[in-house]
Amino acid sequence: MEFQGQSLQLKMLGDGIAELIFDLQGESVNKFDRQTLDELKQIGDSLAAAKDVKGLLVSSAKPVFIVGADITEFGESFKQSDEQLLEWCAQSNAIFNTIEDLPFPSVTAINGIAFGGGLEMALSTDYRVMADVAQIGLPEVKLGIIPGFGGTVRLPRLIGADNAIEWIASGKPQKADAALKNHAVDAVVSVDALRDASLALLKDAIDGKFDWKARRAQKTGKLKLNMVESMMVFETAKGFIAGQAGKNYPAPLAAVKSIQKGAGKDRDGALKAEHEAFLSVAKTSVAASLIGLFLNDQLLKKKAKGATKAGNKVELAAVLGAGIMGGGIAYQSASKGTPIVMKDIKTEQLELGLNEANKLLAKLVERGKIDAVKMGKALANIRATLNYGDFNDVDIVVEAVVENPNVKHAVLAEVEDQVGEDAIITSNTSTISISYLAQALKRPENFCGMHFFNPVHKMPLVEVIRGEKSSDLAVATTVAYAAAMGKTPIVVNDCPGFLVNRILFPYFAGFQALMNEGADFRQVDKVMEGFGWPMGPAYLLDVVGIDTAHHAQAVMAEGFPDRMKSEQRTSLDVMYEETRYGQKNDKGYYVYEVDRKGRPKKVFDAGVMDMLKQVQPDGVKEFDKQEIVERMMIPMIIETARCLEEKIVETPNEADMGLILGIGFPPFRGGALKYADTLGLQAVIDMAAKYSHLGKLYEPTERMREMAANGETYYG
């Protein structure tokens, strides 16, 4: 009995053993798409009817086992009616049930990643042998959904409800030692020994040395918990998970409820509970947003991979300007394996930069992420210098001196004379035009922007800014270097504020207008944090730095005077004039104290209310929560649309990812353009009309109106 499909193969190995091999043609990984499920059904039905098969080995011909379901198919699948989606769940699970119910034992050899449907496939067999380098897990909650191929049914019956809840609700990958300890797998061996070990286990099961029927009964029966244990496990878990996940992420709690509802049922009854729970989250806007973010991330990775092929390889980098920012950039480069020269004109700045890198590496050692040897190697990759020395060998330079165009011009012209003709020079600037900075250079084609977000080690985004004369090679090399540093690069065209800050400041403008009308910044912060932002606008301004924001606001006002220039003094002006610069000097809209862990903790300062009377002559009043959200979010949506229309950014995917990675836009809302799609563009336009008296920030573009009239969306 043989089968050769596009996704699966079935071979007979002798001694009555069949081998089911996952090998999706034309792809580097295996995944569950419609074709794979169809072929698995054919093979399952054939195996169930076979008379000469005594055992089944499930394996992969690729370096991974199965990475999960094909997420690109989710969009169409989730558009089905509730009845159709439930039927799809039932039909899909019937395929796995056929494998589980085969009249002979089965073993899965997990050679690499087995996530989502990959682990659920392995759980449908009687035994699992795992390579020591492999990882398994059920990460579906990170996409706003829950396991749908039996994960909430089989995993709790193997490893216990409490362990299964932790695995599923966190979505975290599990290494081989944890998988073995929790009894999710039956053995862990080296990759080289995996096949032999799996076949040996299967033969022992065939020979009756292992009771595979008892193992199967464990997975297909009821969860072994009495009433008291059930109450303790599920009610405690639900309370904890609801607190951790919050109201905006329903999937983790839905997974727990699915396990609980199916606990007293056999496999088939428990699967029905899983199908219903899956339906309850699959068609939500949260799932649509989180699945969209995953696909956006895949697009960015694909673009970075293309840039790596198109750009020059960076063997040695350099950063100009040490201190906290320069030290952060040096740490990021060195820790990811690219040696870097850190230059400054002051010894004390170099020491500050080296101390910053040392501190960040020491934290990794403290958390067990690296050992002292790796820390030493990373530090050895950073060479601090007061002169240009070996700059002729540098492939890329990141200029990170003070945010002053005259200083940057001088430094850029100076370094260009010190590097080779093919070296790429970049500027880490958040506000200054790249095309303007390029005027100082003889080879402007070798220059572009490389905007890191602070703190460098935490913030995943890097904006790569293309100036008027930046070459494709310069941009590609910079993107490749950012990706090699472990960052997510997004290419944007030059304009005031580039992408993220250009979109952020209309949001801040909405806040300042509310403040001028008497809003309490504490209420606005609370409402926007309730909307999903990690911090409200006043708190965010304190974190960014009031002086930094004040300077950036002036740049934005000059660049876009029609909508970003305020004729009134604002609360930002007041904070700046009162030298309340936020966390950097422990006083802004809030004052800051150090908590027990040494982190800044915001505290209300009643004195700030007196200062704000300068721009709130009529006093403070309460606003409707919905009005606050609309007045804050509409300018951000419209400005994001403008950036897309003006080709500052190439795709809506990149625009939204820039906001999520750069300023913490609520992921469950998917980004400004995804949020606009969720609301409906006509609804956004109608909303904006209510605030037309507030000026051009609330004026939708003609293209937005055209899209609304035609029923178009950004993610069509």
Commentary on this structure:
The chain is α/β, with parallel strands linked by helices and 716 residues long. The protein is 51% helix and 12% strand. The chain has 31 helices and 20 strands. Helix 5 packs across helix 6 (161-170). The longest helix is centred in the middle third of the chain and has 26 residues, at 285-310. The chain is globular and about 85 Å long.
Morphology call = globular
Residue-averaged pLDDT: 95
Q: What's the count of strands?
A: 20
Q: How many helices in DSSP terms?
A: 31
Helix content: 40-55%
The low-pLDDT segments are: none
In the CATH hierarchy, the architecture of the largest domain is Alpha-Beta Complex
Number of domains: 3
Spatial gap, N to C terminus: 45 Å
User: What is the CATH topology of the largest domain?
Assistant: 2-enoyl-CoA Hydratase, Chain A, domain 1
Provide the CATH top-level class of the largest domain: Alpha Beta
What percent of residues are in strands?
5-15%
Strand adjacency order, main sheet: 13-12-11-14-15-16-17-18
CATH superfamily of the largest domain: 2-enoyl-CoA Hydratase, Chain A, domain 1
Largest sheet, in brief, is: 8 strands, mixed
C-alpha Rg (nearest Å) = 29 Å
EC number: 4.2.1.17
GO biological process, one term: fatty acid beta-oxidation
Domain 3-hydroxyacyl-CoA dehydrogenase C-terminal: 497-592
Catalytic activity: a (3S)-3-hydroxyacyl-CoA + NAD(+) = a 3-oxoacyl-CoA + NADH + H(+)
